[in-house]
Specification:
single chain; mainly alpha; 9 helices; 72% helix
């Protein structure tokens, strides 16, 4: 799952998103997925040599269907994005089964420290990088601003990532009595956009994702 998030949200720049409209671009993107999985997952996969190519090929095929059928505007575009991610997670489950992993037991690296670091890396990558794309997709779907691409500009994107990382840290590592602290950045964000309520869906989507990840991984 962490390999998927890294390849889909960190190692997929804008030019590659556009290049994925052709098979060669999708092949490059799927290949990046395969390489990241090789680095992160091969050490714990019994039959990695079978599971990783399976997931890579299926990822290529799903991206091809999305490129052909998924709309680029309107609420249905957000639904297509979420459905696409759900399908990819399902493919990861198929990969785990192909690898021969037991789904009712923990999978750990030899080092508990590495295992813990990778465990917490997953919600942080999902909340920060994945959250940035989710907020952008919400803006596109509901036309919250004239140019949604502004959300992917480095300053705006970095600010949103910092907000979500702060809230996630509070939820993961502080007692519940201090969880209100994590709402400070959200309150500041709402205050800054109080005159532009059309943009509230952006912030709400980021908060929902972050809180869900914090509760699950705590």
């Amino acid at each position: 799952m962490l390999a998927h998030l890294v390849a889909d949200f960190i190692l997929q720049p804008g030019w590659l998103v556009r290049y994925k409209r052709v098979p060669a671009g999708r092949a490059v993107h799927a290949g990046i997925h395969g390489l990241v999985m090789l680095l992160l997952a091969a050490p714990v996969l019994p039959r990695w040599w079978l599971a990783i190519p399976t997931v890579t090929v299926l990822h290529f095929l799903v991206d091809g269907m999305k490129a052909e059928w998924a709309p680029e505007r309107g609420p249905i575009s957000l639904a297509a994005f979420l459905f696409d991610q759900a399908v990819h997670i399902g493919i990861l489950l198929i990969g785990a089964l192909v690898a021969g992993l037991s789904l009712d037991s923990d999978v750990t690296y030899r080092s508990p420290a590495v295992t813990g670091a990778l465990y917490y890396a997953l919600p942080y990558v999902a909340a920060t990088f994945g959250g940035a794309i989710l907020v952008y997709q919400v803006a596109v779907a509901f036309a919250t601003r004239p140019t949604p691409l502004d959300l992917l500009s480095p300053p705006v994107r970095a600010l949103g990532m910092a907000e979500r990382a702060f809230t996630l840290t509070i939820l993961l590592f502080l007692p519940p009595v201090w969880w209100w602290v994590g709402a400070i950045t959200t309150a500041l964000h709402v205050g800054a956009t109080s005159g532009r309520r059309a943009r509230w869906p952006e912030g709400v989507s980021g908060v929902i994702l972050t809180v869900a990840l914090g509760l699950v991984f705590r």
